[in-house]
Specification:
Distance between the termini: 19 Å
Helix content: over 70%
Number of helices: 7
Largest sheet: none
Structural class: mainly alpha
Strand content: under 5%
Shape: extended
Amino acid sequence: MDNEQVDLAGALAQGWWILLLRGVSAIAFAVLAWWQPALTLAALVLLFGAYVLADGVLGVWAAFRGREQNRHWWILLLWGLVGIVAGLATFVVPGLTALILLFYIAAWAIASGVLQLFTAIRLRKQIQGEFLMGLGGVISVLFGLCLIVWPGAGALSLIWLIAFWAALFGALMVVLAFKLKGMAR
């Protein structure tokens, strides 16, 4: 091992407790998401709204700051205003924002699935295993349709998937932290 690797390993070993805190936080988030999925979804939607609102305000500010140097400053202004309106709408009607985001994901899944299926059909004479590509397309279309037909279940599934990732990541960080703690001695 070279000196840089030793330095990095030493720094990680000394800060093992930081990884432990990250892991425990991720696991706590996962438990909360599984226990209160509606609350988790609401929090994520509101966080999105705060981001979009801040982005819009900064866009408007950038437009006014640059209006003397840029004759198309009004495009930045419109972009910022759209962000402000979307951010405020998120706070006024958060359920609608969650539904729109879910339908956006559904539309993407359907469109990409159809294109993937079309590609598989076109390539059926050029490649082997094109049925796997076609099957992937069919699964994407079905996923998108399920989100449209059962949007509540789709939102809940998304939260559970995020929670599963957080639990797995958290568990790995906790194990790593204790391995590093042993190394620090």
